[in-house]
Amino acid sequence: MEPERIEKAVYEATLDDGSIYGKLTSRDMKRLETTEKHIAGDAKSLLDVGCFCGEWLDFLLSRRQDIEEHLGIDVAESKIKEGGQLHPDLNLKAAFAEDLDVPDGGFEVVTCLEVLEHIPKWHAVFESLFRFASKQVVVTVPYRENIVKTPCVHCGKITPLYGHLHRYSEESFPQVPGWSRSFKKIAGYNPSGSLIRRIYRVLRPIYSWLLVDYRKLS
Fold first, then answer.
1. For the chain, what is the total number of helices (H) and then of strands (E)?
2. Using CA of residue 167, residue 170, residue 176, residue 179, what is the dihedral sign?
C-alpha cells in the first residue's frame, strides 16, 4: 500500500459494503447529461480515469456512437469486475492512473468525474490526465463543499463523510501551459419546494458540482 495514493484496501472495503456509493440518482444523471454536452463533438477516443463500474462510459457511448475507442480505469478490481458483468461491451481495466501504460496523447479526450476529492495526493493524478489527452480534459468535483466528518463504520475513527478529502473551487485548478480552461457550475438540487424541505436543505445541504473543461491550444 503506497501512502502517496488512495489507500486501495480501505477503498475496496468501503465500496464492497456500499457505504459510499449506490445507484445513480436523478442528480447524478443531470451531472452526466451536462458533462456529455461538454465532450468535444469530434472526439473519436476517450479515457475515463476512476471509472468505477463504467456508468459514465455506458451513458456516454449510448449517446455518442462516433467514439470509436474507449478505456475506463479504476483502482478497485472488484468494481472493474462488476462493471464487466454489468456492461460487457465496455473496455475496463484495474490500474492506477500514474502507472497506466498509454502513449502520450493516446486518447483525444480524458475524463475524471467525481474522483479527485477521494485521493489524498490528487495533484499527481490530475497531472497524469494531461499526459494521456491530446485534445481535451474534463474534470468534475464537488463545488465548495463543506467537508463533514463522522465516525468511520469500519474503524471508528473520525473520517470525512463520503470519503471526500478536499474542498474545491475554481481557484483549485491551475492554468496548464498549452491548454485553455473554463468552468461550469452544475446545480446539485432545486432549492425551491416546501418550507420543511428548504429548512432540511439548510441543515443538511447537498453540494453542487464544478465542471472544469481544459482544451489543448493549437
1. 6, 9
2. positive
Partners of residue 47 on adjacent β-strands: 71, 110
**47-64 pLDDT, tens digit each:** 999 999 999 999 999 999
- Every domain of the chain and the residues it spans: 8-216
Average pLDDT of the chain? 84
Superfamily of domain 8-216 in CATH is Vaccinia Virus protein VP39 (3.40.50.150)
Q: Is 2 helix (H, G, I), strand (E, B) or coil?
A: coil
| H helix runs in 109-204, sequence order | 122-132, 195-203
- Tell me the C-alpha distance between 147 and 55, whole Å: 25
177-202 confidence digits (pLDDT tens):
999 999 999 986 554 555 555 554 55
User: 117: which DSSP letter?
Assistant: G
pLDDT, residue 123, reads 94
